[in-house]
Every structure is written in structure tokens, then in C-alpha cells.
Amino acid sequence: MKEGIHPKYAPNTFTCSCGNVIKTEATIGDKYIEICSECHPFYTGKSKMVDTAGRVERFKQRYAPKAATPAPAAPVAAKTVAKK
Questions:
Q1: For a designed S-S bond to 16, which of 34, 36, 56, 59 qualifies (C-beta 3.0 to 4.6 A apart)?
Q2: Fold of 1-46
């Protein structure tokens, strides 16, 4: 490695708006972040699926396993009247 061309890699602290403090090493310095894995809805299980114009229901209906449907009844043949 060449000397003097690489950024300094040092211990840093990332502080979230929820109060969570993450200690790591990076080249960018201490930072304040808005959201972390402790407060993000995806990781906490509080996420909501936003349904726009019924798309989720249509998707579930389209790709749901098909239930076994009974076979349609055979068509009844028209009775012919025999002439004597």
C-alpha cells in the first residue's frame, strides 16, 4: 500500500434519533442517523403493508392455490320422441 493516500480508519460512533448508539470503525467520522435497526419498522415487526387500490388482494387472489372444484355435470341429452 502506498503511504499517505488512504483515509484514516478509526473508531466512530453512530447515534440514532431513537437514542441507540452504534460503535464501529469507519473513515467518515461520528454521525447522527435518523433510523437504525432498533427502530426501523421492518426489523421491529411493526411494518404495515400499504394497499393501493386493492393490489395486494388481487395478487393474493390471483396466485392463491386453487381449490379442487367439482367436475361439471354432464349435459342432459334431449329426449327424442319415437314415432309409432
A1: 36
A2: Rhinovirus 14, subunit 4 (4.10.80)
